[in-house]
Amino acid sequence: VITLELAGRRGRSRIIIGERLANLGRYSGGGRPGVIVTDRNVHRLYAGSFPPWPVVVIQPGEENKTLRTVSGIYREFLRLNVDRQQMVVGVGGGVVCDAAGFAASTYLRGLEFGFVATTLLAQVDAALGGKNGVNLHGYKNLVGTFSQPRFVISDLAMLRTLPEREVRCGLAEVIKAAAIADRRLFDFLEKNADSCLSLERAAVEYAVERSCRVKVGIVGRDEHERGERRKLNFGHTLGHALERTSRLSHGEAVAVGMAAAARLSVKRCGLSREEEGRLTGLLKRAGLPVVMKTPPGPLRGALTQDKKRKAGRIRFVLLQKLGRAVVEEVGPEEVIEAADDLR
Ligand SMILES: NC(=O)c1ccc[n+]([C@@H]2O[C@H](COP(=O)([O-])OP(=O)(O)OC[C@H]3O[C@@H](n4cnc5c(N)ncnc54)[C@H](O)[C@@H]3O)[C@@H](O)[C@H]2O)c1
Fold it and tell me: What is the pLDDT of residues 27-38, one digit of tens each?
């Protein structure tokens, strides 16, 4: 078991990699039973390993990451008489963590909460860092809170039941972490992409740990995303636009977004063509798309609506080299052009 600590402004968050779901009972805080929020799929597979705590089950899927679902969670908390001394634990992927974290950090003006992250994407990204949000009117994560989970348990054995597509999507975020801040992880992934995809324990543990270290480091320096934390959005500006306008999943859309950002990085920040090729090569080896299929019209519409846009310009994450990212303001046209280059 590997433990990392993230010091947030209002408390510490412990990230415990390799701990088992079956030991969750030890983390309730003060020995009182907590309350679990999970989705239907995770419940079906893992309810047998839950501690004997009340469970709130939500519908799975991004389309359910809404205020309506949160409202359903509040209703269950009310029915269960959840109080301030009780710990809420989200057991699931990014959707569960976001919805449970948001519900917990707003119910009774904020309850303590923790996560058992059950997808690779949640283990390396979504469960860490204290951003909890849900979608509104088609915009991703438009309403939310900054509030750190007390703990994030990453039970690596639970990844075995993930559909392969979800493993690839998680790997997209691992590649992102490597590309922006960890060249050694990048080298490792080039050599071990297949071992990661087939979930070999040692390879996955290393990839999860290194990715978590990247995120913990960045969030520790910039919890509220005033500067450096924006680097974690590498591939995401275009990725979110693609998610809205295509049938790509989050990780797949981010992969195409990273390929386009790398192309723009060659033009603007001196990323070498060789390193651009290494990034797209690794994405392809991980079974991720790097070709743009969304037509320019809808893409432009979605891009110029991005909530992180500032006065017509887009804050865009670019690479100077593998392992070093910078944030620059670029015009939407430059982004569209880089996307067009991938057609
Ligand atoms: N808050 C943040 O900082 C942050 C960061 C990155 C991503 N996110 C969010 O995370 C979400 C994506 O997360 P995700 O990819 O984990 O998606 P998800 O939560 O939808 O999970 C993917 C699918 O896998 C199923 N599942 C979960 N664990 C399983 C397991 N162990 N075995 C079998 N099936 C399992 C789920 O039921 C779901 O159908 C997006 O909404 C994204 O916005 C949030």
Answer: 987 778 999 999
Whole-model pTM: value is 0.96
Distance 256 CA to ligand 1 centre (A): 19
Among candidate residues 196, 187, 191, 188, the one with its CA nearest the CA of residue 164: 196
Residue 170: predicted pLDDT: 98
Block residue for tokens 């969670």: 73
List all residues whose CB is within 6 A of at least one atom of ligand 1: 39, 41-42, 45, 60-62, 65, 92-96, 98, 118-119, 121-122, 125-126, 129, 131, 140-141, 158, 161-162, 166, 169, 250
Sorting pLDDT into bands at 50, 70 and 90, what band is 86? very high
Helix (H) / strand (E) containing 39: strand 35-39
Provide the terminal-to-terminal Cα distance of the chain, rounded to the nearest Å.
Answer: 44
Is 183 within 8 Å of 323 (Cβ atoms)? yes
For the beta carbon of residue 122, count every other beta carbon within 10 angstroms: 26
Catalogue the active-site residues: 109, 131, 173, 215, 225, 229, 233, 236, 240, 250
